Amino acid sequence: MDPLLPVGPEESSSRSTIITTPESGPSKKRKLAEEQSPSAIAQKAPKSETSFAFLFPLTKPLNREKPGDSSRPFQWLKPLGPMGSCLHGVNLQPKASTKVAALDLDGTVIKSEFATKSVAGKPSSWSWWRSFVPDKLKELHESGYAIVLISNQALKPAALNSWKEKIPLIGQALSDLPFRILAASQKDQYRKPMPGMWREIERIFLEEGVQIDKSVSFFVGDAAGRQYTKGKGDFSSTDRKWAQNIGLRFLTPEEYFLNLPSHENYTMPGFRASTLPELPLVIPTSSSIIPVKRQQEVVLFVGYPCLGKSTFYRRFFQPEGYLHINQDTLKTREKCVKALQEAIKAGKSCVIGAVVSHSSP
């Protein structure tokens, strides 16, 4: 019997007793095999004086849970984003909260296993970063925090499938703890330090009528760019940058789980969105985003991925009936051109979201 499946009173009470008597003979093994067949049992039961009981359940056999089975506490939901590159899963039924405890997965909640090769057909092994991590997560939940795990997982298909099979096992170990997990499976706007996954969290919470309060929320991650005079430093500063780009308080696992002082010797090389100056939405500021005197127009958005072009459209232009022509959803340039021509012919205003790639001049 599966050790994870408890035996309840229904299973023990729903049984029938069939009486049979093994006869003596020269071959005990053969006789025993014959006597345990249904026909032998039916034939020999009336002739017996000495009896043995064989118990058979009358109820249906217990279902064995499989990865992705809805009976498990954890389940993967439909991926997020126009390309489905942001994996999304929930353990139990997590509720939105104004307070969010966001945590990196590998190296923070569980131990990093970059050098560990998974066995074909089996989920990767895993262990807690520290044994008391589940207790700390439970304390957060009881304090009213929504727990969200954030992870970069740009892996090859086989490795990604193995990783996905590991998450329900973590959900089983946290069987009474609701949490949500988002994982970037491609190097796009969802991958930390880009804020795409946080934007999705804000959107999901807003659908439940909850506005996140960043002043009481925080993010814990191990990619903090820490440098040491002796020993190897952090492999990157991605987590620290992600928190800074979003505007969340940042802590390392050592600071949060072990209450160690913050390590101030760190570097954050490369571009940081948080270094950009605060600018008005429209210049000159006296201009309105939507023309006061309405007429057909085509608005062109140009910028790198995940700068907020689609959010800007949904906030200002969608309520005014502007169409959104976006290659992320239409897939090809030809379809975008056709959609634009049809919009112009129909007399409709539209917004075109153009993406500047790194190879663009």
UniProtKB/TrEMBL annotation:
The lineage of its organism: Eukaryota, Fungi, Dikarya, Basidiomycota, Agaricomycotina. It comes from the Eukaryota. GO terms for biological process: DNA repair. Transmembrane segments: none annotated. This is Polynucleotide kinase 3'-phosphatase. One of its GO terms (molecular function) is double-stranded DNA binding. Residues 1-46 are annotated as: Disordered. It holds the Pfam family PNK3P.
